[in-house]
Write a structure and sequence with these properties.
Elements (H helix, E strand, L loop, with lengths): L5 E6 L51 E7 L3 H33 L2 E3 L2 E3 L4 E5 L37 E5 L9 H7 L4 E6 L1 H15 L7 E6 L4 E6 L4 E7 L5 E2 L12 E4 L4 H4 L7 E4 L6 E3 L7 E3 L1 E5 L11 E5 H19 L6 E5 L47 H14 L4 E4 L2 H5 L5 E3 L10 H5 L6 E5 L4 H15 L1
Parallel strand pairs: 7-10, 7-13, 12-16, 13-18, 18-19
Antiparallel strand pairs: 1-2, 3-4, 5-6, 8-9, 9-10, 11-12, 14-15, 16-17, 20-21
């Protein structure tokens, strides 16, 4: 390394002052760069012949770099060796994480061979003999009006007749009686946000027709935070618990949570967890509430600022608050969640799942249409093989590292400690389905304005899904895992 420049880190005195940083610097999460080399997708550039060390960009935690000089001295050498060690350790962790990731995501097999149920294509099945859809909107006793697209005027029903076909095997057909038998004497709980409630409604509708009217009911408890579907004959419960950020927050009210400044008690989960501690099957999700979507042309996902609270909501005079980016707080919340699972879950009883990010279709330019359009009036899936939208493409997301990577790392650590948990990777298979969102075909809780009526895409819901529809496939994946193990 003689004759080469090395760089060491110094804290920035002023987060907006770039005087110490070379103008060509543009780095995010780089461990070590050899001369003339930059890792793809990192946003890192350098001059030929320079060595750069570990760096990351942020607000209060931003680090800066300065040259150590050609010799650098003992202090700089130690820093350089430490950086090399960190780099080797990091890439070793990446290697094992990738290996574990495959184990986490590909765990269903047929005839003794493993099959990735999450990689495949959507096949239209509109024949008279088809079993799709699995239920009718009007026949589900507990359909949610926010998801009942046919009831609220959608005439094109082709979205109901697409089934998911993995490339290397068949996805087991959902059998309501078999599912209820697996749930006999048990409690299945979906924990998370409204997309997890979307999946909960789907599950209830999938089993609804197999239960006599007098033997089933839905109850609302805890001011609406807990929905409980009971199948009396089976002594089974299928619940949904509202916890959009998993940990305690000021968004925990199920009906009053449209809050601009979100406050998170990042180490507090027991208030929620006590309501699902005794579950036999837990299905978690938490993602969309951690991102901010700007509803403009060519908009991008950006970090939303949160307030992190170390005290309690009940004692405002005894708290310490700080603003951090959503990704960092998400990582802390996932750590609290995983710590709770490690210490409190019954490992011989409870099955654990985490559902990956459900994609949105709010930018029609992603499938070749004008930028001011979205999922409104879409009637066909995206046909491009391996399609990713900007909101979920690992190369495009402004989430570094990706939020799902944070979950995958937590799952990896839990499994190392003997806590079995499975990721249901629904992201890319759902990414194809720009045609299947609730759009304008749902109950509207507020009167529509004249401007909205003139331009329906301005109030189209391109986040949630029509039922029957895509979340039924998510439950088929869940069913396949429960059936296998």
């Amino acid at each position: 390394m003689r004759g080469e420049k090395m760089f060491q880190f110094v804290p920035s005195k002023n987060a907006s002052d770039d005087s110490e940083v070379p103008s060509e610097r543009k780095y995010q999460n780089i461990l070590w760069a050899k001369p003339g080399w930059a890792r793809a997708g990192t946003g890192f550039t350098q001059k030929p012949g320079q060595f750069w060390a570990l760096g990351w960009a942020g607000s209060r935690s931003e680090k800066r770099i300065r040259p150590c000089g050609s010799r650098g001295g003992i202090r700089c050498s130690i820093r350089g060796l430490a950086t090399i060690f960190a780099g080797v350790s990091f890439y070793a962790l990446l290697f094992f994480t990738e290996r574990e990731k495959k184990m986490v995501l590909l765990d269903v097999d047929q005839k003794g061979g493993k099959c990735n149920l999450f990689v495949g294509e959507w096949v239209y099945d509109g024949s008279n003999s088809s079993n799709y859809p699995s239920y009718k909107t009007q026949e589900c006793s507990f359909m949610d009006d926010g998801l009942a697209c046919e009831k609220f005027g959608r005439k094109d029903l082709n979205y109901q007749h697409w089934r998911w076909q993995p490339h290397d095997c068949d996805l087991p057909r959902f059998n309501a009686e078999a599912m209820l038998e697996m749930l006999r004497g048990k409690r299945l709980v979906f924990v998370g946000d409204s997309l997890n409630r979307n999946q909960w409604v789907s599950m209830v509708c999938l089993v609804d027709a197999s239960i006599p009217k007098a033997q089933k009911s839905v109850n609302f408890e805890l001011n609406g935070s807990l929905f409980t579907f009971k199948a009396t004959e089976y002594n089974a419960a299928i619940d949904f618990y509202w916890a959009p950020l998993l940990v305690e927050s000021n968004c925990d009210g199920p009906y009053d949570h449209r809050i601009k400044e979100r406050i998170v008690r990042v180490q507090a989960i027991e208030k929620h967890a006590r309501h699902w501690t005794n579950a036999d099957i837990l299905v978690f999700n938490s993602y969309i509430w951690w991102t901010s979507h700007k509803m403009k042309i060519h908009h991008i996902i950006s970090f939303q600022k949160f307030t992190i609270r170390w005290g309690s909501f009940e004692s405002p005079g005894e708290v310490d608050e700080d603003y951090l980016e959503a990704q960092r707080i998400y990582e802390m919340a996932v750590k609290t969640w995983s710590d709770w699972l490690e210490t409190r879950i019954n490992r011989t009883k409870t099955r654990l799942f985490f559902v990956s990010f459900s994609p949105t279709h709010e930018r029609a330019e992603e499938w070749g249409k004008p930028a001011d359009q979205n999922c409104y009036n879409e009637t066909e899936p995206i046909s491009k093989e391996g399609n990713w939208g900007r909101g979920s493409d690992p190369k495009m997301m402004r989430i570094d590292p990706k939020m799902m990577r944070i979950v995958e790392k937590a799952v990896f650590e839990l499994r190392k400690k003997g806590v079995e948990i499975q990721i249901l990777n629904v992201t890319q298979l759902s990414e194809f389905r720009k045609d299947a969102h609730s759009s304008i075909y749902r109950k509207h809780w507020s009167p529509l304005t004249k401007e909205q009526l003139v331009k329906p895409q301005t109030y189209a819901d391109c986040i949630h899904w029509c039922l029957p529809g895509v979340p039924d496939v998510w439950n088929e994946l869940l069913y396949a895992h429960l059936q296998k193990f």
